[in-house]
Design brief:
The complex is a heterodimer of chains A (about 350) and B (about 290).
Chain A: E1 5-11, H1 16-28, E2 35-42, H2 46-60, E3 64-70, H3 78-86, E4 92-97, E5 101-102, H4 106-117, E6 121-135, E7 141-150, H5 158-163, E8 172-175, H6 192-203, E9 208-221, H7 234-247, H8 260-268, H9 270-312, H10 315-325, H11 327-350
Helix pairs in contact in A: 10-11
Chain B: E1 2-10, H1 14-25, E2 32-40, H2 45-59, E3 66-72, H3 78-89, E4 96-100, E5 104-106, H4 110-120, E6 126-134, E7 156-160, H5 161-166, H6 179-189, E8 193-204, H7 216-233, H8 236-246, H9 253-266
Parallel strand pairs in B: 1-2, 1-4, 2-3, 6-8
Antiparallel strand pairs in B: 4-7, 5-8, 6-7
The chains are: A alpha/beta (about 350), B alpha/beta (about 290).
Chain lengths: ~350, ~290
């Protein structure tokens, strides 16, 4: 009997038919025999929990799926992962989000690589997938795959992992003995997976086997606001990056000089170019928004000036304005106002 | 109650069969009766006994609307194999039937999803409805709204029985690979629509998506079929052009040409189809991605 492999899937009960359906079918398709799935349902709504549990039923007839209900909303997306980690009883462990999928060779290939080479961490190649929602002839929504592309190959390097998030969450399997009580940071809204790997590597060196040519999973994105990371939450993403950088800034570790070359390679190759392209696109978008806002402001300013100009041509306003701007007249007006107010006050006290 | 028949050809498929049979056991078929016709073509007594026993065990726990039968026949290859199963059983079939590979897992809602499409399309002149392969989705292009596509993969397709007979069923000159493209061309020539069904998914545990890992048999068969289809539907110069593409130094050139000549000899009639190599209407290599 092969050793037990557990996959932790986290869901909030959204898009069950459209996305979680695929995630679960990709687990059913695994050719590795001894697989169990821990699925965390992170929601405080009874209706969502009930619906998700009912949805899981047919899939549970095919493979071992244990739902874990996480009702409290604390700790962002990290919290359910930590709850699942407490429930572990397996030799091998991996993670999968409810909008991504594994290829059917994921477990068999990576676990064989771990066992044949006596390693603790096996890394495969991810596929970036671009999808969009379409409606078919019956009016039902489905995910249309626009394109797929292999992620640029990046050789594993410890110093690079400490600097950059280049290992997708769904491309590796690790031995659960590596965990060493490491938990996901519940203060981070993004990049908790990268922070987790950094914590692990600082506790104990990975003994890694990398299968750079073997596609094992798909990272599916729609490039709209349904993605975990999108343009709207870029600022929060940067904040998460600061959190993980700051938390680990005083830690010390040993690195091999030879590994440093991968950093040079990373910044020179497609990864860096892709990140740079995204940065330029982002900045272009911000610039366009800024120009648009400035244009709107300018139009508002011109409209206000026109209005002021129109009012200033009014005779009553001109008399009032002259009075206000002339010191003698202003004093006279003020005295007059005080006199009238005094008369009114006296009148009231007599009553 | 309507009925839908599913033809599955086996050829030393016992390793793949367990998951498929398990998925049949949990299959939801609320509106249709589903009949699985397994046909073993291994010509091996032990293998047949093995798959027969597996099916026998599976039958003990299937749903009330599901039926499974198991039989054997000589190794006719893919197209002729399916034609034979169809000929034997067609009198009991409904308006359409499904061909499915054995290295598959049926998703629990597949039949119900197919039925929704069938009901929607009952007045349409369709010939083939291609099911969606998962997790390695076929990269072939289809129109995201009308769902029209140029050809349907034989790994999993619903076939309109009347259309199938009208166009002359599968070309029995092709042993394996390319017969699905050929059937699709004849469907299109006869104005039958070919549609892709995105909500009707099945898992295909395919091992041959990586071209670099193709066996010699697969490569020779695929390239010979490419030549044959050009000979059948295009011009002499298109065949020559493709032979030149294979190259003088290709180690399998001799075998590819030999196989092509064998198929060519059996063909009664060439039918020029102007759209076959026309990229606008019939480009069967119009893929959305290549990995």
């Amino acid at each position: 009997m092969s050793k037990k492999w557990t996959v932790i899937v986290r869901t909030q009960g959204n898009n069950l038919e459209l996305e979680l359906n695929n995630t679960l079918n990709s687990l059913i398709a695994q050719t590795y025999e001894n697989l169990s799935v821990l699925i965390t349902i992170h929601s405080d709504k009874e209706q969502v929990i009930k619906k998700t549990l009912a949805f899981l039923k047919p899939y549970q007839k095919m493979i071992d799926i244990k739902p874990i209900i996480v009702k409290d909303k604390q700790g962002n997306r990290s919290h359910p992962l930590n709850v699942a980690l407490k429930n572990l009883d397996c030799e091998y462990l991996s993670f999968l989000d409810d909008d991504d999928i594994y290829y059917s060779n994921m477990g068999t290939t990576l676990i064989k690589a771990l066992e044949d080479n006596n390693k603790t961490f096996a890394l495969g190649r991810g596929i970036n997938v671009k999808q969009r929602i379409e409606k078919d002839i019956t009016g039902k929504e489905y995910l249309y795959t626009v394109s797929k592309a292999k992620r640029p190959y990046q050789e594993y390097s410890k110093p690079l992992l400490l600097l950059e998030n280049f290992i997708p969450f769904n491309t590796f399997i690790l031995k659960s003995s590596l965990l060493n009580n490491v938990k996901f940071n519940e203060y981070m809204e993004f990049l908790e997976d990268w922070d987790f790997l950094k914590q692990l590597i600082l506790k104990e060196e990975f003994s890694i086997i990398q299968l750079g040519d073997v596609p094992v999973s798909e990272y599916r994105r729609r490039y709209d606001n349904t993605d975990t990371y999108n343009e709207d939450n870029h600022q929060k993403w940067l904040e998460s990056r600061d959190i993980t950088d700051n938390l680990l800034k005083d830690k010390e570790t040993t690195i091999k000089i030879g590994d440093l070359k991968h950093i040079r390679y990373f910044y020179a190759n497609d990864f860096a170019k892709e990140f740079e392209k995204q940065r330029i696109e982002r900045e272009k978008k911000y610039e366009e928004e800024r120009v648009e806002k400035e244009k709107e402001f300018e139009e508002y300013r011109i409209a206000m000036e026109t209005e002021i100009s129109r009012i200033s041509r009014n005779t009553g306003y001109r008399i009032w304005n002259t009075a206000i701007n002339n010191k003698i007249l202003k004093n006279t007006v003020v005295k007059l106002v005080r006199y009238i107010r005094g008369l009114i006050t006296k009148g009231k006290s007599r009553k | 109650m309507n009925k839908i028949d599913i033809q599955i050809l086996l050829y030393f498929s016992s390793d793949d069969l367990m998951k498929l049979l398990k998925s049949i056991q949990v299959l939801e078929a609320t509106k249709y009766q589903v009949h699985f016709h397994f046909m073993d073509q291994s010509e091996d007594t032990k293998e047949f006994a093995k798959v027969n026993e597996m099916v026998k065990q599976a039958k003990k726990e299937i749903g009330k609307n599901i039926e499974i039968t198991m039989d054997k026949q000589p190794n006719y290859g893919f197209g002729k194999g399916h034609n034979e199963v169809y000929r034997k059983n067609k009198d009991s079939y409904g308006d359409s039937f499904i061909i499915l590979n054995p290295d598959t897992i049926i998703h629990h809602n597949l039949i119900d999803n197919i039925v929704k499409y069938l009901e929607y399309l009952k007045n349409e002149n369709w010939g083939l409805l291609e099911l969606t392969q998962f997790p390695s989705e076929h990269p072939k292009y289809f129109d995201p709204q009308t769902l029209e596509t140029n050809w349907a993969s034989g790994a999993g397709t619903v076939i309109n029985s009347k259309a199938f007979e009208k166009v002359g069923m599968f070309d029995e000159n092709i042993f394996m690979y390319g017969e699905d493209v050929d059937l699709s061309i004849r469907m299109r020539m006869n104005k039958f629509k070919i549609l892709h069904l995105p909500k009707a998914q099945f898992t295909h545990l395919t091992k041959d998506t990586d071209v670099s890992k193709q066996s010699d048999f697969t490569r020779i068969s695929k390239l010979a079929a490419e030549l044959y289809l050009r000979y059948k539907y295009a011009k002499e110069e298109d065949v020559e052009q493709y032979i030149n593409l294979i190259g003088e130094n290709d180690p399998q050139r001799k075998d590819i040409l030999k196989k092509f000549q064998e198929m060519k000899k059996k063909l009664d009639k060439r039918t020029y189809y102007k759209d076959f190599l026309n990229s606008e209407n019939q480009d069967y290599t119009n893929f959305r991605w290549t990995l």
